[in-house]
Amino acid sequence: MADNELRGSLPWCLANMTSLRILDVSSNQLTGSISSSPLFYLTSIEELSLSNNHFHIPISLEPLFNHSRLKIFYADNNPINAKITKSHTLTTPKFQLASLSLSSSYGDGVTFPKFLYYQHDLEDVHFSRIQMNGEFPNWLLENNTKLRQLSLVNDSLAGPFRLPIHSHRHLRLLDVSNNNFQGHIPVEIGDILPRLISFNISMNALDGSIPSSFGNMNLLQILDLSNNQLTGEIPEHLAMGCVNLEFLALSNNSLKGHMFSRNFNLINLRWLQLEGNHFVGEIPQSLSKCSSLEGLYLNNNSLSGKIPRWLGNLTWLIHIIMPKNHLEGPIPVEFCHLYSLQILDISDNNISGSLPSCFHPLSITQVHLSKNMLHGQLKGGTFFNCSSLVTLDLSYNLLNGSIPDWIDGLSQLSHLILGNNNLEGEVPVQLCGLNQLQLLDLSNNNLHGLIPPCFDNTKLHESYNNSSSPDEQFKILFSIKGHQGHVEKKIQEFFEFTTKNIAYIFQGKVLSLLSGLDLSCNKLIGHIPPQVGNLTRIQTLNLSHNNLTGLIPSTFSNLKQIESLDLSYNKLNGKIPHQLVELKELAVFSVAYNNLSGEIPEWKAQFATFNENSYEGNTFLCGLPLPICRSPTTMSEASIENERDDNLIDTDSFFITFTTSYVIVIFGIVTVLYVNSYWRHRWFYFVEMWITS
Asked: Where is the signal peptide (predicted)?
């Protein structure tokens, strides 16, 4: 009866099926407590699956203590009743379970149920999200020598991670991730658990070095020690002995030194996660042996040197993620052979040269090359017909030339970030052919011409519904004696985008919600197309620092989701549309340094939060928070009064000034004639000639 839409409680007629051996009602909407249900009477039951319902499960399992044949009990994703009754502590269960799985988001302060102390045939145990306070139950391994899988994920376990004294040769999977374990990983772990296939102790608070005894686990396929506080270097014995290792995650620790030496036998590696450490030196040549490598994650380290050309020979690579290092040199042309590549992120390095014109893997979804020193033009072959490309971030480089006409061939492109380059030419209308486009940043370039009026053909318009998420995730599959399992890792995309006058780092699912248009700091001219007001989905619009003229379109009142609107440093004129007061989400607004005039929108709602800085540089604007606008009558009277004042002359001052000036001139002439005989004779001669004539 699994995977149906069954609701309500279990029917009591089930109590009559006393010979029932297997009951599976998982993945329904069933409710009730198993303490007062017909399950209490099914004493012949061997396999009971209640997962993915709304049953109230007592963690003590006391209602099932008389079910002596019960071997398998699954009750994942149900409310767990944390209360352990006093009678339970005095009762021994009749069952000997082989497989047990419980998980819930309910309950706290729970200790390991006492009935587990009486179990000796357990093979698979899974507890997750139950917040079972206490230490790691090493006694569970000592009491159950057949135990193959033990998963205690997100159970609030704490204290030191102690292993049993004796070797446990049957355990294949041990997952104790996302707890609060402290202290060191036991140095003898490789000797105590020599036949582990998968070990995950990530997201704890462990410190110290990585035990070299991991190298004794020659069956190990998955090793995840990420998100701890581990120090030191990667043990050479680990790199030599774990010959079957496919997944190695040591990310987000404090490891240092070189990644690997020449003594390296991890040739079966498929996924290598070393990001968020302090590794130095070049990317080791030894990784070239990993012909099956699919994911390489080296970001946030201090790696240097050039990107190895041999990476292009690892044709199974689908993720190359190495931002925030000190890598230099060009992008190897051998990358053109990575036909399966989906994500390339080498941003925030010192990469130089131009983009290889042959680089256009058909499966590529994300390209992040920002904050490097790439130069040259976007050539015709680069990214040509990459119809799966979702994100292209080439910002903060030295790229020049124009935005290519073939850009509309990137039919799935939703995030195009080309800001802070030296691009020139016009904003191509082909961008309007990207009907999935939701974020466009062309800021800080040398673009000129008009703003295309057709951006409302894209996802910037609300008529397009975004259901995609830029998050990528992958699974590693493994098999333990016929029991299939997997480890999942999610890769979160991130990039920088300026909104509300602040550069933010956006990542994860928020990217699918972010929408904006930034054409600031260019040389654009002409009017703002009224169609921009149809981009009702955008949260940020920045057209500042251009040469735009004309009016602010009244259609901007349609931008109901807008949070940041910057039109400053242009040549806009006319009034600010009063309809903008309807923008309830607007947090940042600037029309500074234009030629706007008249009364600003009413000082209410969001506009009551904007100060005079939003309007400075517009002499003829008025209204709160600027000086209050004067009425036309008042302005007319003031003008007439000023005119009268201008026509009035102070006659007394005029005559005094005139007389003084006249006396000074006469006195100056007499002085010159008295002192200088030459000019005196010339003066008398001039007077004589004037009289005789």
From this structure: none
Q: Nearest CA to 607 among 575, 582, 570?
A: 582
How far, in Å, CA of 307 to CA of 290, rounded? 16
Amino acid at 299: N
Q: Are 424 and 445 in contact (CB under 8 A)?
A: yes
CA distance 306 to 321: 15
**pLDDT value at residue 322:** 97
Tokens standing for 430? Answer: 């082909």
CA 633 vs CA 71, 217, 575, 636, 638: distances in Å = 94, 93, 20, 5, 9
Which residues are CB-contacts of 519 (< 8 A; sequence separation ≥ 6)?
A: 427, 442, 443, 447, 451, 542, 543, 546
Strands 547-550 and 72-76: unpaired
User: What pLDDT, on a 0 to 100 scale, did the predictor assign at position 35?
Assistant: 84
Intra-chain end-to-end CA distance of the chain, in Å: 138
Single-letter amino acid, residue 505: I
Separation CA 175–CA 127 (nearest Å): 10
pLDDT of 233 strictly over 70: yes
DSSP assignment letter at 60: T
Bridge partners for 271 per DSSP:
247, 295
- What pLDDT was estimated at residue 113? 85
Q: Which residues contact 360 (CB under 8 A, 6 or more apart)?
A: 336, 381, 382, 383, 384, 385, 386
**Consecutive H or E run containing 657:** helix 651-675
Contact 463, 449 (CB under 8 A): no
- Backbone Cα Rg of the chain: 39
Q: Which of 527, 528, 532, 494 is nearest to 516 (CA)?
A: 532
pTM of the model: 0.84
Residue 64 to residue 576: CA distance in whole angstroms: 74
In Å, how far from its chain's centre is CA 608?
32
List beta partners, residue 573.
595
pLDDT tens digits, residue range 555-585? 999 999 999 999 999 999 999 999 999 999 9
Give tens-digit pLDDT for 30-64: 898 888 888 888 899 999 999 999 988 888 888 89
CA distance linking residue 255 with residue 239, whole number of Å: 15
